[in-house]
Amino acid sequence: MRKTILAVVFMSIISIVIFFGPNEKRNITNQICPVMTAEKIDPNIYYDYNGQRVYLCCKRCIKKFSAAPQKYMKNFRVDTPLQVQQGFREKLTSFVGKLHPISVHFPIALFFAAVLGEILSLLYNKQLQQAINYCFNIAAISSVIAVVLGWCAHISSTYKNELHTVANYHKVMGILTAILIITVSVLNSKKQTASQTQLEKLYWPCILITSIIIGITGFLGSSLIFGLGHYNW
C-alpha cells in the first residue's frame, strides 16, 4: 500500500512538472542551415563552434558540420534573432524518448524467453508454465512502456526524407508489436482455463506472426540508428 501511494505521488509530481513546468526562451541566430543552405533550421538541432551556437536542419548536418566546421561556417549568416520558446514538456519529452532504445529490449527478451519455455515444455515435458506466464505478462506490460517512450522519441525526432518514412513505419510496427505481444499474453492465460485445442489454432500462429513483426520492427529501428542498408555485406 505504501509503495502504491508513493508511486501515485511520484507520477502526480511528474505530471505537474510536465504540464505546468517553466518555459525556456532562446534566441535563434541563424534561420538557414549552413550545410543544407536551402533548408530552414530546426530550433532543437545545433552545434556549438568557438562559442557560437550554429543551428542546423537535421542530425545528418551535425555530423557534416562537425567534420568540417570551417568549410560550413562560410555559409553561416546571422539573421535577425528569432525568439523561440521551448516548453519544459518538450525538453522532458525529448529526454524520455532517449530511453526508448533501452526499453525495447525487455519485452523482446521476455517474449522469446516465454516462447523458449513453451518449446522446452513440448519437447521435454517440463513444467514451466509459471515462468512462461511471468515472462509473457511482463513482456506485455513492458511493451506498452516501450511504445510510450517510442512515441516520445518520434515526437522529438527530426528525420528527413527516407529516414522520416522509416520512422513512421517503425512507429506503426512498434504499436502493432505491442498489440500482438499483449494478444499472445492473453491467449496464453486463456488456454490454461479453456479447451486447449480451441486456442492452439490461434496461439502458435500468433506467436509466429509476432516474432516476424518483432524482427521487422527491430530492423526499421536499427535503420534509424545505423542508417539504411546497414546490413549490406
Automatic annotation (TrEMBL):
Record keyword Flavoprotein present: no
GO molecular function, one term: oxidoreductase activity
Transmembrane segments: 5-22, 104-124, 136-157, 169-190, 202-228
This protein's UniProt keywords: Membrane, Transmembrane, Transmembrane helix
Domain DUF2231: 99-227
Name the UniProt record assigns to this protein: Cytochrome c
